[in-house]
Amino acid sequence: MRYALLTSLFLGAVVSLGCAQSESAHTTWTSDKGDQNLRDCMDGFASCNRSLLTEPQANEIDTLHYDENLRGCLTSYDECDHASLTVTDAKEVSSVERRRNLLACETETGICDKSLLTPAETEEVTRIEKEQNQLNCETGAEPCDYSLLNPIEAVRVQTFEREHNLLACQTGDPQCNQLLLTPSEIKEVAGIQYQMNLLACKTGNGYCDDSLLTPSDARRVSEAKHQRDALSCEAEHDMCTATVDDGLAMQKDAQINSGEKAAHRTQRTLYQP
Fold first, then answer.
1. Which of 60, 132, 145, 148 has its CA 20 to 30 A from that of 26?
2. Is 173 part of any domain?
3. For residue 9, what pLDDT is reported?
4. Is residue 88 assigned to a domain?
């Protein structure tokens, strides 16, 4: 009898403990599910179940989403749901969007919708576009629409184009168009180009066209080349290109020059009083 009583008490304790653990696990699972649903609702996920939210939670989440949408509308950085805005906020957003569109039209950055401009704004934007086009034409930038220029502006642009082309030809710029040069400018540019070619030949730097040189300049270039070779060979530089014969000739010239100088010094000594 006593053994049966103890057994009954033990089984009752086990059952009670099992029920308590089951209830605790159920509470934990329900809590985790509620936390996940709250996060889904805050993030705006479709899996959000609003029926599981408390009234304060639902109100706070609605306010959060409204503010996020309003920010997107005002900054254009995120999507904007105009339909969810209040009348006051909708007016503010509309005003900001018009100003943003005007800025895009006046600065040519972003998307410009001219249908949103007032008549006065349209006139101002047209003026800015015309001035910008004229500036592009005068500086050689793109785009340039010559059809928007009046006769006086067209003449001014042509003058700038000729000046820019002459400077390009004078400085050796590949954009030089010699067909646009006057006869006197062609002669001037030819002289500059000749001097640039002569310097390239004398220094060994850049492209040298020997066929363009006059006989006297060709001799000057040859002498300059020999002098460079002599210096390079003296310094045992990698740029030394003199042959054995050239080296002997240069050495002989140096000996002759040295002998002439020595003889000249001797004569000066003999004839000194």
1. 60
2. no
3. 43
4. no
State the Cα–Cα distance between residues 81 and 94, nearest whole angstrom.
Answer: 12
The whole domain housing 37 covers: 32-81+94-116
How far is residue 62's CA from residue 160's CA, in Å, rounded to a whole number? 62
* The token pair that represents 23 in the structure block: 């209830």
Residue 173 burial by Cβ neighbours in a 10 Å radius (0-12, 13-18, 19+): exposed
Q: Find all residues with CB under 8 Å of 48, minimum gap 6, and list them.
A: 37, 40, 41
Q: How many domains does the chain have?
A: 1
Which pLDDT tens digit goes with each residue over 9-51? 444 554 454 544 545 544 455 566 668 888 888 887 878 888 8
Domain contains 126: no
Contact 171, 179 (CB under 8 A): no
- Asked if residue 51 belongs to a domain, the reply is yes
